[in-house]
Amino acid sequence: MRLRVLGSAAGGGSPQWNCGCPVCGAVRRGEAPPRTQSSVAVSVDGLRWFLINASPDIRAQIEAFPGLHTREGRATPVEAVLLTDAELDHTLGLLLLREAREIRLYATSAMHKVLSDGSGVLRTLERYCPVEWRTVDPGADIALADGLSCRAFDVPTTKRDRFGTGTDQGRVVGYRMTDELTGRSLVYLPGVQALTPELRAQIAGCDCLLIDGTCWSDDELVTLGLAGKTSREMGHIPIDGADGSMAQLRELGARRTIFIHMNNTNPILLPDTPQRRIVEGSGMEVAADGLEVEV
Fold it and tell me: What pLDDT is attached to residue 103?
């Protein structure tokens, strides 16, 4: 199974257009590479690719990866898009795929409600191209293609329900992708508020884990004077601290752990910071746009 990181930053990218924090400043000075908004592509044969989320940067991300280039006419290697939530930074890219002959979309009923009656992304997209909607039920295995299957799992969250879905079931999910030939698996979990026992069970023993790296510390944005909420209050477990993700992940046995969905303020985005050295010293990694992983 192959994975390509199309984008590694949280919503807004890095640098964020309206931010002058130290990290954004360093990226603008060329001291670290810019990053687009988070999305990955997964394939078992290198020919058919499944995108997990479609960021507003999707066009540039496709052009940066030859594996997603059209080989002839208007045919595309993109088989489908799977959604982890219905946030704009994970769904606006769907509108940029509107020239497709058809888009196959895997998402939960709660996400369908948001995309139809809330943000309106789905209703707009359907005016341009056919959308084949496939409902994702957390806990149920889905055969995506010959040799590739996935299982979504619920990710509990108390983050603001902007569009009033009326349910937490299926509002945020992660995916465990499995190569049926080798039995190897990867878990994609770009948004998680707490590593509950249920989530630990989903992660345990996977060959590769890509997990929420939004903030280094819980009070990161508060300390910088950029927000009044902590990382956890925004739905993201911080990396650092006795109850942060890095301390907990060591126990779960993932063979390779990669932080993704980093906020533009996170110091691990810079190559020579104490925080980056701590992550790498622990044996974990920081995703970058274009990273390719063989699972």
Answer: 97
